[in-house]
Write a structure and sequence with these properties.
The chain is an alpha/beta fold. It folds into 3 domains: 1-42, no CATH class; 79-340, 3-Layer(aba) Sandwich (Aspartate Aminotransferase, domain 2); 351-474, Aspartate Aminotransferase, domain 1, CATH 3.90.1150.10. 34% of the residues lie in helices and 12% in strands. It has a 7-stranded mixed sheet with strand order 3-9-8-7-6-4-5, sandwiched between helices. Strands 12-14-13 form a 3-stranded antiparallel sheet, covered by helices on one side. Strands 1-2 form a two-stranded antiparallel sheet.
């Protein structure tokens, strides 16, 4: 078919589609045929590229801005990890290639990556075996709680509740509830960690598991974690580790060594995969020896001839929870990341993330309220309660930061801290970047006394000015107006 360019009625150049010589052309009803020529724009490749490049400059990302997003571990992602997914035979591998029990020559590389990554994660966390299938951290939590249920059922027990501290990530109680459990919340004590006295009152023979993030969302490591694990095991219950904050203890402490039985790991947080806006994610789950039989199928096994295959015959398995390869691109990037940094590098990641967080915290504690004045781990929480007394809230401070080129930190979480501002610098930021962030945070604290209006109407330097959050929540517009 030839396109004929003609001037339309409006005088603009348009495209006319003459009668096609293909069999289907004559079958198009007249009511569906165009009455006027299509006025398609003629834009050069250069102008197109400039347009989309300018649009991209409106975005914030780790590659362009400091991202102190507490609890999310938004670290820089080495570009070598991105390149790995382009390797022929890995990036081009089709997910529907048959999963043959005796091995498949086309999938040997991918199976090796899955097998070795699971071995690395087992060593890092102190678990016996991992499944790489879960597609996100919350999906890993659900997988873990399903295995908890299967474990107790195999012992003829039907336990009905899971204990979770009040500072937990919201996905913890959600995952436990979806798996059919009653969620019992334990308050934090004056030190910001789960109150062990209240915990012991709640723990009983109906408890299936205890779900903990350690260090917790306040960035605090619970010094009584071993005692909590021992008490939990005495009650016949299991310990579940939410790996969202694993970055703080990499190469320093294995969750399995302090009593955790199940671990999920956020590869997209800890092991160098970019994320945000809901994805991509990967939440592999590792278990101790007594839970291996319940892992999802299929599983990668290494054969004596050093080839890899899939095995399905696990009668106690909870079954399939995702397509076998999981989020393979994320797993591949994590595999490269672990090989890149090595064992000593993992420990340095923890050391530097803890150092950076404590450095910022010490510098800001005179200007903002610090609800828990302890040495923190990889992140910390300050509060804007001082500023709130003068009419400025945490959300105002977060929006003001945007004016200076910093992504807003996490605010109003955890819920147990009023006007919470959660900051996690990660290990990848330089001292120069940290100092600049500290200076701006101090500047904003001073503006509360000197020029409140500039904070309360921020941001001023972006393409979009201050939005009405209340109206946006009550009258969401999810599509462009015609």
């Amino acid at each position: 078919m030839k396109l004929v360019f003609e001037k339309s009625i409006s005088g603009k150049r348009g495209v006319r589609f003459p009668e096609c010589d293909v069999p289907c052309a004559g079958n198009i009803p007249d009511k569906l045929k165009r009455k006027n020529y299509a006025e398609l724009p003629e834009v050069s490749e250069l102008d197109t590229m400039r347009h989309f490049t300018r649009l991209s400059l409106h975005n914030m990302g780790v590659d362009t801005n400091f991202y102190p997003l507490g609890s999310c571990t938004m670290k820089y992602n080495p570009k070598i990890c991105e390149e790995a997914v382009l390797y022929k035979g890995l990036g081009d591998l089709h997910p529907l290639i048959p999963q043959l029990p005796d091995g498949n020559k086309f999938t040997q590389g991918a199976l090796q990556v899955l097998y070795e990554t699971s071995q690395f994660l087992s060593e890092i966390t102190g678990m016996a075996e991992f499944t790489m299938q879960p597609l996100a951290g919350a999906h890993g939590e659900l997988t873990g709680t399903m295995m908890i249920a299967a474990y107790h059922a195999s012992r003829g027990q039907k336990r009905k509740k899971i204990i979770i501290p009040d500072s937990a990530h919201g996905t913890n109680p959600a995952s436990a509830a979806i798996a059919g459990y009653e969620v019992v919340s334990v308050p934090s004590n004056a030190d910001g960690v789960m109150d062990i006295d209240e915990f012991e009152k709640i723990l009983d023979k109906e408890t299936a598991a205890v779900m903990l993030t350690c260090p917790n969302t306040l960035g605090l490591f619970n010094p009584q974690i071993k005692k909590i694990a021992d008490k939990t095991h005495e009650a016949g219950s299991l310990m579940y580790y939410d790996g969202a904050n694993l970055n703080a203890i990499l190469g320093k402490l294995k969750p399995g060594d302090v009593g955790f039985d199940i671990v999920h790991v956020n590869l997209h947080k800890t092991f160098g995969t970019p994320h945000g806006g809901g994805g991509p994610g990967s939440g592999p789950v590792g278990v101790k020896k007594n839970l291996v039989d319940f892992l999802p199928i299929s599983r990668v096994v290494k054969k004596s001839d050093k080839t890899y295959a899939l095995k399905y015959n696990y009668p106690s398995s909870i079954g399939y929870i995702a397509p076998f390869y999981g989020n393979f691109g994320v797993i591949l990037k994590a595999y490269v990341y672990i090989l890149l940094v090595g064992k000593e590098g993992l420990a340095r990641i923890a050391e530097n993330s803890v150092l950076n967080a404590n450095y910022i915290m010490k510098k800001l504690k005179s200007y903002y309220h610090l609800p828990y004045a302890h040495t923190c781990m990889h992140e910390f929480v300050i509060s804007a309660v001082k500023q709130k007394k003068n009419g400025v809230r945490a959300i105002d401070i977060a929006k003001r930061l945007l004016d200076f080129g910093f992504h807003a930190p996490t605010i109003y979480f955890p819920l147990i801290v009023d006007e919470a501002i959660m900051i996690e610098p990660t290990e990848t930021e330089s001292k120069q970047t940290l100092d600049k962030f500290i200076d701006i945070m101090i500047k904003i604290a001073k503006e509360v006394d000197e020029n409140q209006e500039i904070i309360k109407t921020a941001p001023h330097n972006l393409g979009i000015s201050r939005l009405d959050e209340v109206k946006a929540a009550r009258e969401p517009k999810l599509r462009w107006a015609k």
